[in-house]
Write a structure and sequence with these properties.
252 residues, alpha+beta, Fructose-1,6-Bisphosphatase, Chain A, domain 1, D-Maltodextrin-Binding Protein, domain 2, 2 domains, seven-stranded mixed sheet, five-stranded mixed sheet, 6 helices, 14 strands
Length: 252
Amino acid sequence: MLEKMMQIVREAGEMVRTARDIEENTHEKSNFADLVTKYDVAVQALVREKLLALLPEADFYGEEGEKDAMTKSWRFIVDPIDGTTNFVRHLHYSNTAIALVKDGHVEYAVVYDPYADELFSAQRGKGAFCNGRPIHVSDNDVKHALTLCGSTIYDRSYTDWSFSIMRRLYDLGMDYRRFGAAELDFCQVAAGRCEVFFECCLNPWDFAAGSLILEEAGGRVTQLDGSPLDVSAPCSVFATNGRCHSALAQLD
């Protein structure tokens, strides 16, 4: 299953990497900061067809268009292009993410960055990998932590909370970065390149795959109140190398 998912996500990534005329085929969805391109739709259509041919008994829950009713035990959760604004602006920090969930638990996950040609993957209980090589979180403490963050741009009601958390983590740690593609941010923590990632509200397609990859790499992920993630609904995310999860108690 994981190998076939990796093949599918690589094919999707090739569509992203070779895309042309992106700006001319971009539209707003919920607001001016929520963009969709014809490539988001095309990649999702490709991935949906191939995944459901692989596992017809599964539901499909993708970012674009109508969602399945979510009544089946197996469920694919897909972000065809995570980091669409980066994609539109040619910033080359975007990915395609696929999670396969069974009864509410992510069992398989792939996240592919076609620009860096890095394919992150995990199967529950089997470890995490980047291009077939095992990856593991760093052992850095909070003082030496590099934090990644999202700003929940689709709902500005979270802005003050988001920036207050970022300021607190900045004071506690080394520095921060804002890259704009949550699934790939999870993978940076999983690969030991950063120690913390948080966002005040994410949709399941923004965290399902990355959360398993991080956990299988030795990290820890919860909501900002310390409760488990819920892959059936939007929620907050606090993802760390494990050692830095203690910072959660210091966020007011």
